[in-house]
Amino acid sequence: MSAAELASSYAALILADDGVEITADKLQTLIKAAGVQDIEPIWTSLFAKALEGKDVKDLLLNVGTGGGAAPAAGGAAAAAGGAAAAEEKVEEKEEEKEESDDDMGFGLFD
């Protein structure tokens, strides 16, 4: 991670901790106050746009918890359509075998 990315990340965390809206100008102000040199404004605008409307504290608290409820909700549908899904997978594997380069007469060193 570059110095610009780290500086922008830390500045965004500081603003989020204080409950201040994260904008490119505020990120740039914090970075300059910290004495970090040569940070292009594109980094602060990228971070500001990426974090716009998001709760940074909530993002930090939910790191690594992606979609825990989705498999539980789809469990009933998967049980009902399990046989159909298994048949589709078998068909896809058979098609892949038919299209191999060996069957067409092409080899690695031809």
From TrEMBL:
GO molecular function per UniProt: protein kinase activator activity; ribonucleoprotein complex binding; structural constituent of ribosome
Residues covered by region (Disordered): 81-110
Cellular compartments per GO CC: cytosolic large ribosomal subunit
Keyword field contains Glycosyltransferase: no
Start-end of Acidic residues biased regions: 93-104
Swiss-Prot/TrEMBL keywords: Ribonucleoprotein, Ribosomal protein
Keyword Ribonucleoprotein: yes
UniProt xrefs under InterPro entries: P1/P2_N_sf, Ribosomal_P1/P2, Ribosomal_P1/P2_euk
Biological process according to GO: cytoplasmic translation; translational elongation
Family annotation (HAMAP family): Ribosomal_L12_arch
Protein family (similarity comment): Belongs to the eukaryotic ribosomal protein P1/P2 family.
General function of this protein: Plays an important role in the elongation step of protein synthesis.
Complex formation: P1 and P2 exist as dimers at the large ribosomal subunit.
Protein name as annotated: Large ribosomal subunit protein P1
Lineage of origin: Eukaryota, Fungi, Dikarya, Ascomycota, Pezizomycotina
